[in-house]
Amino acid sequence: MGNTHSFRADKLFSGYDNKTIIQGIDLEIPKNKISVIIGANGCGKSTLLKTIAKLIKPSEGDVTLDGKAINKYPPKQLARILGVLPQSPVVPEGITVADLVGRGRFPHQSLFSGWSKKDYEAVEEAMDFMNITEFANLDIDELSGGQRQRVWIAMALAQQTDILLLDEPTTFLDITYQVEILDLLTSLNEKYGTTIVMVLHDINLSARYADYIFALHKGELVAEGKPSDIITSDLVKSIFDLNCVVIQDPISDTPLVIPKGRYHVKS
Amino acid sequence: MKNQSVEVNFIMQGMRQRRRRWLFVTTLLVILAVVLSSAMLLLGNTIYPVHIVVRTLLGEEISGANFAVNTIRLPRMLAGVFAGFAFGVGGYVFQTMLRNPLANPNILGITSGSSVAAVFCITVLHTSNSTISIAAVIGGLATVIVMYLLARGGTFSIGRIIIIGIAIQAMLDAVISFLLLKSAQQDIAGAIRWLGGSLNGSKMSELPPLIIVVLLFTPIIIIFGKQLGILELGEQMASSLGVSTDRLRIILIVSSVFMIAIATATTGPIAFVSFLAGPIANRLVGVSSSNILPAGLVGVNLVLIADLIGQFAFEYRFPVGVITGLLGAPYLIYLLIRMNRKGEL
């Protein structure tokens, strides 16, 4: 399994209204890998993700998929390759889980076509993968935050794209659900070879789950590479302005950042 | 190991069941609309039996019945059916597109935009009915354009659109009052009757624009209904699923404003129908797929029921807008209280 899409950004500048946040970033997303964008609040990680997701138009530079600028693709065709889960999607009032997941099939359906067998199978597979089949006919409002997030990811899975972008998929979730979501995304990557790019807040979970890290500071890409290669106390100091010690995670052998504050430091 | 095929069935069954409910309720709404339309033709000062009504409709000359049925009752019924449908669909589209039950053509001032244009035609220009229709459409569209331009910022904001819409409505209503104060005594009665929303005095000759616009724009709106369901998931989700959100909004807004403005020009703004139809349809049918058709049918039934009540339930005959107003106002208050409790206001 795996896909061979080349997905990259060149000399990317972007932001909101007249404020430029992303200051000339070049990057290539590694194929079939999980990449995580990290950085302090306001460094532009969400803006970068939204720009490569075509949710924000870059003021300069290009985002290209297989050598073609993403804004040159017909929208539905792009949506069959590139899936995006924004930070705060809206739940229509009263909708059931299965119907919401089913809306992920939109890019595969034409203006007049009804539901094909393939559509049902994709919905079933996505729901089974995210362990939400039992909720199929429930109202979304009846679910917990963690369950709800699984529904949204299932919707993105039903879209059956080779690349999946997620904007802080674990925010507002308890630690149990954070790990659950990241595990599910990892199995998705292993099973289908889906290229995953996400923004995460937690640097330690990022270090554990990412194959590749993009570290941002004030709209610029300051480091990229495998977590074990780039996450050092110097990097953390420079992008988060935080003193820390980096040790080895006893579970995964990945870097583990131990913050050093003003108090509770043994002498 | 889980049994795959059982799970497919479980999911599919639920989805199919919801689709069957949609079909079942929609059929019931059609039947109810047919029953009410027939009642509109049968009932009146003289109650004619079915066979007489059918014969007059087929063009036979039956003294008395002919005038009552073909000249009075038929246009009244058709105006109610098509205007009710237009208000229902237009209201549903706006409420769904802006994801807020308050966001309907009444509250956003689109109906008022049409009304200003129509009242200006009635009291100042003394124009024909067809000019009033055209003016109402232009007034409605102009209101939307102004609202859209004023609400324009970096990104599309629903809250901003709604607040600006409410402000525009207040302003336009003031213009209507001003026009009425300034107009000649003999024009005021006509304008007021029109503003109240009434099927009284509907003439066959006034109906073609309304019927054509409804038949033309309803299929367009239904075709884009699936995309409207995606737009409901939020701006970003919709565009990442491949919907061109700006283009979709323009198509839907233009289509529904045309329907609402023409309906407004024909019957006057029948209060609250566009506000009530969508939520009632969603409640009856569920929200699994697009409820454009059910909302239109609820609109038809609301207008016809309200008109029948207005004609026959009291000693004095009330225009349809008074009855729908009585039905709609409590719902608006209920909605405001509920939204306030949930902190959505």
Plain-language structure description:
The complex is a heterodimer of chains A (267) and B (345). With 267 residues, chain A is of the alpha/beta class. Chain A has two domains: 1-81 and 161-232, Rossmann fold; 91-160, no CATH class. Chain A has helices spanning 45-52, 75-79, 97-102, 117-129, 145-158, 175-192, 203-209, 227-230, 233-240; strands at residues 7-16, 19-29, 34-39, 60-65, 68-69, 82-85, 163-167, 195-199, 212-217, 220-225, 244-248, 255-259. A six-stranded mixed β-sheet of chain A has the order 6-7-8-3-9-10, sandwiched between helices. A four-stranded antiparallel β-sheet of chain A has the order 2-1-4-5, with helices on one face. In chain A, strands 11-12 form a two-stranded antiparallel sheet. In chain A, helix 4 (117-129) runs antiparallel to helix 5. Chain A is globular. With 345 residues, chain B is mainly alpha-helical. Chain B has helices spanning 4-42, 50-57, 65-97, 110-125, 129-151, 158-182, 185-196, 208-223, 225-231, 235-240, 245-267, 273-285, 292-312, 320-341. Classes of the chains: A alpha/beta (267), B mainly alpha (345). Chain A binds chain B through residues 16-17, 50, 53-55, 74-80, 82-86, 88-96, 98-100, 102-104, 106-107, 109, 111-112, 115, 120-121, 123-124, 127-128, 133, 136-137, 159, and chain B through 2, 4, 7-8, 10-12, 14-15, 18, 99, 154-155, 223, 226-227, 229-230, 232-234, 236-237, 239-244, 282, 286-289.
